Amino acid sequence: MSPHLELLHSRVASPRRQIATVYPFALFVPAICVLTVCLGTSPVVRAAANSAELPGVRYTVSLADPQKHLLRVTLDIPAGAADHDLQLPVWNALYQIRDFSQYVEWVRAKDRTGHPLPLHLLDKSRWKVSGAGDGAQIEYEIFADNPGPYGAQFSAQHAFLNLAEVLMYPVDLRAASMQLRFTNVPPNWRVATALPGARENQFTAGNYDLLVDAPFEIGTFRERDFDQGGGHYRVVVDADPADYNMDKLVPTVRRIVTAATSWMNDRPFDTYLFLYHFPRGPGGGGMEHSYSTAIDVNTSVLANDEHAFADVTAHEFFHLWNVKRIRPQSLTPADYSKENYTTALWFSEGVTNTVQDYLCLQAGLLDEPHYLTRLAGEIGELERRPAHRMQSAEEASLDAWLEKYSPYLVPARSISYYNKGDVLGVMLDLAVRDGSHGTASLRDVFRWMNQNYAQKGRPFPDSDGVRQAAETVSHANFAWFFQKYVAGTEEIPWDDFLKSVGLHLLRQSTITAEPGFWAVRNSDAPPLVSGLAQDSDAGFAGLAVGDSILEINGRVTSSDFRQQLAELQPGETLHLLIRRDGRERQIAWKMRSREDLEFELKDLDSVTPQQKARRAAWLSGQDQAPDEPHP
Ligand SMILES: [Zn+2]
Known about the structure:
The protein is α+β, with helices and mostly antiparallel strands and about 625 residues long. Among the domains are: about 20-220, Immunoglobulin-like (Sandwich), CATH 2.60.40; about 345-490, Neutral Protease, domain 2, CATH 1.10.390.10; about 505-600, PDZ domain (Pdz3 Domain, Roll). It contains 17 helices and 29 strands. It has a 7-stranded mixed β-sheet with strand order 5-8-3-2-12-15-14. About 50% of the residues are buried. The protein binds zinc ion (ZN). Zinc ion (ZN) binds near residues 2 and 319.
């Protein structure tokens, strides 16, 4: 996921200054990014499902009522057991309990002859149907109007559906084959999904997890396809054609898939689908799936941030390996009935950020100065959060389920597993290169995990699996790295890692604008004020904790709101449009100045040829030949 488009932008990556600013006290939580909720079972695990022996389950979803955003779902259960528990997932697409049953209007059950069957509620998201030995039909209506890659929305404009948010499943038949049919589809609407279609508007999947791993876009989208390296790629965009240029987007996508399949030396699919929305309002993020991704980029971000589209596209595409196929044991299979705890998000999300940048570098979509600025920004982001001394990368992964609560997001309470995982990925890469004298790298760690877990249909044992891969490809011991920096909270000695590529970290103080408040952004909602500095001008101007920030200086807030605030100058007047208790109001005040810390990555006084060679290999994602000189 990338709820975190935000995270991506939390990096202060202004090309004008090769310096990353670090805020003194945790101003903005980096995104709460829940980016990737990687739900679903990996393709590998899917293959193991014994669907052939179980009779199939059929879903029919009627699109007859777009005005009320109501989906009418019919679930046909085959003859077999007398009783079935029916579960509607409590979470999907974000590591947050969202209780989709809140949107269920009514449910009823009947037998094949149309007679009602007993249906009992077992808990807020689970029902039991009895007397279903000859088969049963469950019917319900569910409201769907949550836009974005983590939601389900049915409106007069389109339907975008994460199916786990609208389809309940018979618990005993989760591994059975599935059929899905849409009825009452408006005549000019088409369907885009990665699932195979049996016939028009009818689709099949080997089991429930495969079914819900494929989002649906149904409407009047535009599509551009291309072939690359033997794979077929579909780029589907549902947005106002005035807001984007397909001729610019498609070559970027092509460069990313070329870089990624080459870096992994693998292409575990024939066809892959990119689904894009470019909303004008708040919103942004991406959600990975095994054979597709759904991505939202706010139109102003798309227009003003040259890296945003490539960043989120590379992130979600790389997830098709890391998290979907290279899958942590703790998420296998996904438990839809409650929180699914995992220690591995620092790797599955954070190191996906690491590789996202590597792929953009290799694709020519990011250059070295921008990359080093980003990396310094990520280091600064971690250093300025006091919680980095208390909460480990593994603990932050376990605590992902708290990210929907604002108090959890303040810098003294939590770090981001995207952020720490990102820098750990870089440091692990440099350490593997060191340990192997340049002959192995993070690329080989991923290739080894792909061959030894993903391609064998096995999940990896969380952090231990990553350590084992690093030790195998480097022939060096990595217990220290995982004890100190993954499971532990020791300060990371940046310069020790960076020396091999001729860099060191510089911290210096600077004068910047003091917004005087903290804001956090959860998923794709507008940023929320989570705290005010003592005696802050923001408070005197009328800003209060809990206010939603809709606009900053006339621009709709989106995933890049932190960067917008970071670019303010002392003495400048900040205009906010906020919403409180359903009412909108304008607030403005003049920014004070404050002393701040800047982080920058600089060349060592003298960079040796060996360090130069190592840096070149690092930034190109390649290993050095075994006989090349090494530092
Ligand atoms: Zn992600």
